Amino acid sequence: MTDAKPGGWSDTKDATPEIQKICDEVKGQVEAKTKKKYEEFLAVKYRNQIVKGTKYAIKVHVGGPSYLHVDLFKSLPNNGEDIELIKVEENHTKDDPINAF
User: Fold this and answer.
1) pLDDT value at 43 more than 50
2) Are 28 and 35 in contact (CB under 8 A)?
3) Across the strands, what pairs with 5?
4) Cα 49 to chain center, whole Å?
5) Which residue intervals define the domain Cystatin in the entry (predicted)?
6) Which of 10, 47, 79, 92 is the most interior residue, by most CB within 10 Å?
7) Vertex 73 angle, CA 40 and 51, to 5°
8) Residue 101 pLDDT > 80, yes or no?
């Protein structure tokens, strides 16, 4: 699988501890947006795109057969590395492809 190139989306990759950390940081925002509490919130796959920061499209397992697709933007270090939740899609399965936003 290739890494993200400026302007282009990466292939789908297995989530890393860094991706899980990003998900942990936005879990509260995701719960507020979906109006649900998640005991499990495990990043499993992701894609990314480098463009004035990094866009992430992440598949998150939230228990049983349920998965979310979470789209985020992380700004560059010189802009504070803020993480912005863009979109949450519910009702995904383990095998659904992660679509770039």
Assistant:
1) yes
2) no
3) 8
4) 12
5) 4-101
6) 47
7) 140
8) no
At position 14, the amino acid (one-letter code) is: D
Query: Which pLDDT score, from 0 to 100, does residue 78 have?
Result: 82
59 backbone dihedrals φ, ψ, rounded to 5°: -90, 125
Chain position carrying tokens 């057969």: 65
pTM: 0.90
Give the pLDDT confidence score for residue 1 in this predicted structure.
38
Residue 26's SS3 state is: helix
Q: How far is CA 47 from the centre of its chain?
A: 8
Q: Is the pLDDT of residue 4 over 70?
A: no
Sign of CA dihedral 10, 67, 90, 39: negative
Compute the chain's Rg from CA coordinates: 13
Which pLDDT tens digit goes with each residue over 71-85?
999 998 887 779 999
Residue 62, CA atoms < 13 Å, CB-side half-sphere? 23
Report helix, strand or coil for 94.
coil
From CA 76, how far away is CA 96, in angstroms rounded? 30
